[in-house]
Amino acid sequence: MLTFNQRTALVTGAGRGIGKAIAETLAKHGVTVICVSKSAESCGAVAAAITAAGGKAKALAVDVADGPAVAKAAEQLLAEFPTIDILVNNAGITRDGLLFRMSEDDWNSVLQTNLTSCFHWTKHLARPMTRARWGRIINIASVSGIMGNAGQANYSAAKAGMIGLTKTLAREFASRSVTANVVAPGFIKTDMTTEFVNNPEVSAKILEAVPLKRFGEAADIANMTAYLCSEEAGYITGQVFTVDGGMAM
Ligand code: NAP
Q1: C-alpha distances in angstroms, 185 versus 32, 70, 168, 182, 246?
Q2: Cα(190) to centroid(ligand 1), Å
Q3: What is 8-241's CATH number?
């Protein structure tokens, strides 16, 4: 059993897939969870399900790629919640294509949504954590940011950028007992990967590179993330944890 001491967490991309699993797992540990997604419907449904199950949650629809919108949302949240102790930057998109065919729009939207969003949320939420002398920042990157992946120049660059950002945050905030770590998933069954997982030829090819010979579940990522958010993980910072069935070892 992990220890959480009535913490409050903000999880981006909590409307579906990995973010939803992280929000639900933290809520089961008694954490109050602010569920952020782009559409009000998805974060609303997740927050409602958590509340119905006896947990504490709030839904917040905000486009994480929109810096001023994130600033406004953060200001309102900090007025409502005495502390936001845990930040999980999980919202992400793909706009895949080989480099020669990749548009600047596809480059910019992936960098803005996956990487710049982490800069904005951290800038607004980490200061109160440093004042409180306790905090957890978890950035959900990808094995693509470690190994690279043909067709994902934008996504790999954003995910590698999250790793550099996290290591810097770990160094900047360590003296205040605020830790920052990365979880780097491999192939996990969510809406993002449905088209690969449901294609027998493509999925067989992918699984050739996965020693454990199966796709991961959102819960596999949520369990690692919950551990890194707990009291027990207080001496771990600046690290990258791949949860990928052994693919990137
Ligand atoms: P998903 O099923 O596509 O869900 C993405 C979530 O992010 C949704 O809730 C979506 O909101 C939210 N989101 C996207 N753009 C947003 C924006 N601009 N503002 C606010 N919210 C936004 O994705 P997933 O597979 O769970 O992936 C979660 C994270 O894990 C991503 O960062 C992804 O890169 C990373 N990852 C996934 C895999 C994998 O195999 N699935 C592997 C490696 C890394 P709505 O619900 O409103 O659309």
Answers
A1: 24, 25, 21, 10, 10
A2: 9
A3: 3.40.50.720
